[in-house]
Amino acid sequence: MKRRKFLQSSIAVTASTAATITPLIADSKHLVQKEVYEWREYEMQFGSDSGQLETYFKTALIPALNKHGVKTVGVFKEWRPSEPAKFYLLTPYSSLDSYFSINAKVKSDADYIKNSAAYNSVPASKPLYSRFNSCLIAAFDGFPAIVVPSGSRMFELRTYEGYSEDAVRRKVKMFNDGEFPIFSRAKLNPVFGGEVISGDRQPRLTYMITCPNMEERDKGWVAFLADPEWKKLVGDSQYANTISKISSAFLVPTSYSQV
Question: Rounded to whole angstroms, what are the CA distances from 195 to 5, 6, 10, 103, 184?
Fold first, then answer.
């Protein structure tokens, strides 16, 4: 009877551990918590006042997120603006639990409610944006937390779509097995990245790199592709056929972006 109770208790503990929604990675000494990112893409309406959306970001949303524990919120525009304009919002959370709890706190925060009143009063006849797309990203094991760069710079957001879940799993493994040092040597400085766990165009992963300017970015990719370690990785058969589509967006931070 004691053995049966012990086994039942062990199974319950194992199930509870497996059910946790906080992504963790392990090394020989300790557990390291991986971040979760929300990435939003806003497409503005033709003729709408983008300043109203930016005012909402600056005076309502970002201060509320900062107040409740999000340290750095990134807001970006296109390097070469399209028409209608697009805005991109990056919000890092320490975990999936944190994503839910912080958003609940923000929605009920008195200052946020007051400061977002004008944004919420935009009439249906004059919407600011068509819609915004949103996805959640679980950080790579090999790059578990955002790195905020300094100085004037541009950003490249790259998205890799795979033909199957296994293809993306193998591409994620390729990143974790050795791509990050190659990025650093090529001066294509990673900012954040991971596997998209909720959103459209699944399965896919996405990551952001940064350089001082487009010229340095181009030099960096030449160096990356010429790196002996990259050639070794890309020649490994386990990483064959991992990507079916690559897309890039070139972005610059707004004046109030914290990334």
Answer: 39, 37, 31, 21, 20
> Which pLDDT score, from 0 to 100, does residue 4 have?
42
Which of the residues in the chain have pLDDT under 50? Answer: 1-30
**Is 0.70 topped by the overall pTM?**
yes
Q: Give the pLDDT of residue 48.
A: 85
Rounded to the nearest angstrom, the gap between the alpha carbon of residue 63 and the centroid of all alpha carbons in its chain is 20
pLDDT for 6 equals 39
| Residue 184, burial from CB neighbour count under 10 angstroms (0-12, 13-18, 19+) | exposed
Q: How many CB atoms are closer than 10 A to CB 138?
A: 20
Query: What are the backbone dihedrals phi and psi of residue 92, each rounded to the nearest 5 degrees, phi first?
Result: -90, 135
Instruction: Assess contact for 42 and 86: CB atoms under 8 A.
Output: yes
pLDDT number for residue 18: 35
Amino acid identity of 212?
A: P
Contact (Cβ atoms closer than 8 angstroms) between residue 25 and residue 85:
no
- Backbone φ, ψ for residue 188 (5° rounding): -100, 85
The Cα–Cα gap between 52 and 58 comes to 10
And the tokens for 26? 């392990």
pLDDT of residue 31: 56
Q: Give all domains of the chain, ordered by start, each with its CATH number.
A: 33-129 (3.30.70.100), 140-254 (3.30.70.100)
Q: Taking the C-alpha atoms of 42, 43, 49 and 53 in order, what is their torsion angle to the nearest 10 degrees?
A: 0
Distance, CA of 187 to CA of 182 (rounded, Å): 9
Through-space distance between the first and last CA atoms of the chain, rounded to whole angstroms? 58
